[in-house]
Amino acid sequence: MSWVLLAALVGAGSGCGNKEGAAGSATPATSGAPSAAAPAGSGAAPSGESGGGAVAQPTTPPSTGTIQVSVKDLQLFHPFSSERAMPNVRDNGTYSTRDQNSAYGVGVIVEATNDTGEVLSDAWLEGNVRFLNGDREVECKFGPDSVGDYYNTTYTLHFNNVPEGAKADPFTGEKPTAWKNESSSTNERVWRPGERIRFVARKNECESVVLADMPPSQIRGRVLVKANKVFVKSYASTFDEADFDLALVGDAVRIRDKASGHVAFVPVREEAEGNRSARYNVLSMTAAKDASKDAPAVPLTHLELRYPIRYTRADILESPPLEFDLPPQSMTLQMVKLPSGEAVHASGNVLVYVKENKVVYQDMAKAKLSLLGITREDVPGAMPEVSFTKNELTGSVKSASITEHADDTALSKGQRKLSVTWNLHLQGDGIDRRLRVPFDIASSEYEKASADLSQVDGGDAAAVAEAKAAEAKAKAAKSAAETKYKNGLKGEREKLAKAFPCADVKIATNRGTKSASNGKAVGEACKALVTGSDDLEVTITYTLDRYEIPVALVYSLAGEFTWSPIASAPLLKLDPR
């Protein structure tokens, strides 16, 4: 059976995301390319071990004839991050920020070099981060974010050399940057061999904070860059069964390239614009065998279209997959080294440390750190020792533990109680000895004056008078020293007790710094050091949120700011029950 259908051919649209597509090309059944609805030249893409040392910076193996990819920056956004800062993709020294979000997120800057020997266009990025625990997995897919202003956006930036001495823009004041938007340039929008491009991806909602309930034993990431060849032979209007599987299916012909497996559908006819007349896309087709009129599909041996269509996706080139691992502790708490060499606590992309006697919460990007390439280590397996000595006052943390709301009816659902027990000791004997020194000296002087008086010749009135005056003076001095000693004893205990204001001891967590929830009771208990008790055990409690992790105790010691880390493996564990 054969049909000859004569009419003007109108194609079904270009292959997704291909600049070369024109009227008359077929809409593919499947496609790994970006959406054709993206701005021109954008290259739009579909959305998508414990221990220390440095986190390896992944790079693709050196090779030619492919797309080379490297990760220039990677941030794992923590739900407690207030800014979610990333270095600007243009490398101009500024940062891009977004509002706080109650989910984990991924931020990545990817650089790619065209070593394929081909002129490419419409490059796009595909990536994912997988959180694994046994056979459980959460996958976070991401694609590139758009870059540029409202009217001229793109998904890629091209590298341009900045001439030495280049001046800032006289109107905006912006300094010249090597990374530019070339999407509006007819000549430079393509990606030639040897040229570099950049993508930025920022998945704001990877998974909510409940992801920490798993918790992951592995975090694995992967990025891939793809692009279309510009110079390709991918059009045809004549198709034979030797190279293609052909069939009439309903009101369209199905064309399957046997080499690539790509499937295209071309409608037999469609309504013309502006009127009700029919236009035919198929010039002729030959059936492989007779088939009934109602058959679901009629195999074809030959097909001719009025105009050529794009029938294959073999023109897509892609980079080798670039894979990387992240330490699972990056989700909760780990230690990372700043450029200054100082090791600080980090929860996701949130750094927690002390600067100028203040607790600082800073996004990792603003400290010029990427999660890849950092020097890191786990927090200690046991809680670090916390102790102090101030004159005769000593203190130490006996224990620290967390109680879940399921085990304490005083807590609301989702709350946790951190209990920190201090042992405080005031050396009362030491204070007494120190304060008695002036009194003991005055007593000795009085005893000496009395002895001198008893040795004076009674017949020498002047000598007697002088000795009595000396005794009286020594007695008065002793009395004054005794009064000062007794009054000062209580005052000194009070002064030393106040050197450590136990009611004001705060806890710094990965979310913020907060006061004790039983501060008033703790303050009353600590008064026992003033009233005569030399030893005291007091427990300070803090109410934490479900995913809040203790980092350090923050307190004043005789007016000096003190930061005492308590972060340790037992305090990292969450109890989802």
TrEMBL record:
Residues 17-66 are annotated as: Disordered. Residues 20-48 have a biased composition (Low complexity). This is Uncharacterized protein. It comes from Polyangium spumosum.
